[in-house]
Amino acid sequence: MKDPIINALEKALTQLNELPELKKDLGKRPLSNPVKILAIGKSAFPMAKVCVNTLNKRKINYSGYLLTKYGNVSEIIPNLIVKKAGHPIPDKNTIKHSREILSWLEGLPENDELIILISGGGSSLFEVPVDGFTLEDLIHFNKNLLQSGLKIKEINYERAKKSKVKAGKALDHIKAKIIYCYALSDVPNNEPEIIASGCFFPANSPKIDKNHYQAKLKKGRQELYYSIIGDNFSLRYQLAKALTSPVEVQTRYFTENAENVANSLTKFAFSANKKGIYIFGGEASVQVTGKGKGGRCTHLALLMAKKIAGKKHITFYALAGDGNDNLENVSGAWVNQNTANQLQEKGIDISSALKNCDSYTALKAIDAIIPSWSYPLNLNDIYLLQIS
Questions:
Q1: How far apart are CA 264 and CA 239, in angstroms?
Q2: N or C terminus of the chain with fewer C-beta within 10 Å?
Q3: Domain coverage including residue 371
Q4: What CATH number is given to the structural domain containing 265?
Q5: How far apart are CA 149 and CA 380, in angstroms?
Q6: Which residue has the higher pLDDT, 279 or 322?
Q7: Together in a domain, 148 and 273
Q8: The pLDDT value given to residue 211
Q9: How confident is the model at residue 210 (pLDDT cuts 50, 70, 90)?
Q10: How many CB atoms lie within 10 A of CB 254?
Q11: What are the pLDDT digits (tens) for 253-312?
């Protein structure tokens, strides 16, 4: 029997895959016929599918490109050219397909209207490096950044320095006067200049109103309508609806390193004075110090197992919203107050596993790994405390 928490998360993700905010906004936009579509990111396929279905209902013709990671497309979408590239590390297809897409964008006439669908993962998937920066340089550069323990905002600022498309530079290749950009946010505070490294958001633009998630921007003669159609809080609230009460959605969005996040969550769990389910979110950073196997969520879960060992009845879940904790077929892990004892019985030392960044191997040994699912909405991670 599947864990009810996992069932609830899968239900929430299934419902969010309908992208109601995208459907609603596209349904009322005064679009020309035909329109062009460009979908980029780990969630490019579900976003493109909803977009195309909405346009079909309005009898609006379309054509364009979809660029996502390998394995994230489950069916053909007519009139969209599908390209796949490496994630989280760019590969030769990243540069090849990105150059092809830039060439296509440059060829669009001024009177065309362009719909851009952007989601997390776009930083790796859509990239044309500055002159003199080779593919090997790009791969090495990204590996170092991802293992540095830096926050996503800091990582994407560094990426932009080596890029011809990031930090709004991709807009320089577009002559189309009207652009509608829809984003799924995987960054704190929903900053458009950080989502997918802000390829299609003008640098130094005013911040989007956090309550409305929409902005109308001008870049020369170009009009850009930018909308954030989903974020980590969307997933939290949808998950809360799918769970049995009592459930509380917490406002905290974690961006600290995994050790600090684990300390905060442990303190909260120990001080909670009532039973229930508490939902947090964010993206804990991990500085890789060993050669073991693990992801952000499995590492955080193993940290929690150490901190809550032998204490009150606490179960902790750490799950990647897109079902991929940087490990194939792994979305995260769950632990409770008994996990440390179970690992000890297997001869596994938690401190050594953490030092070697080998959280997956440790938790796999006691069947605490949560497998992936087929709903690639990239909305950061979910951290769930169940106190009983």
A1: 22
A2: N
A3: 233-387
A4: 3.40.1480.10
A5: 16
A6: 279
A7: no
A8: 56
A9: low
A10: 24
A11: 999 999 999 999 999 999 998 999 999 999 999 988 888 999 999 999 999 999 999 888
